[in-house]
Amino acid sequence: MRKTFLLAVLAAPLFAGGFFLQLGNPEGNPEARKLNAVLVIQAAGCHDPATAEVTATAVGIVNGERRAIPLRVTRLAGAGSYALTQQWPREGKWVIEIVARNPTQFTNTLVTAGPEGIDRLHARYSMKAFTAAEVEAML
Fold this sequence. Notes:
Blueprint: H1 2-15, E1 19-24, H2 30-34, E2 37-45, E3 53-62, E4 65-71, E5 73-75, E6 81-85, E7 93-101, E8 106-114, E9 117-126, H3 132-138
Antiparallel strand pairs: 1-2, 2-6, 3-4, 3-7, 5-6, 7-8, 8-9
């Protein structure tokens, strides 16, 4: 039931002409595995995925200090597919903010990362920019 609900939520923007991001396991993508990626990002929806520009920032707290680190996102061979590698310290708790734009649309996703890895199951998706308070709430 939970998987069916999640699929319905993720598929809804497809039928509404939306633009959204899907987060995947890099183990399912040989190219991402070769890069030692921790996350695969797929731009999806009713647009040309090849036109999507994806950026990411890690926001975290390490030893009581708040840090923001711009991350390099690597384009993969598939249209609208990207890989993200571990570029933030392993210690501490982090929120990865992923932003995607195409010529007419915007979407973004927040996903937590920590010593246990990336928590794709509890990622938050929005077609409006997240506020600083929303990012903080995930830390």
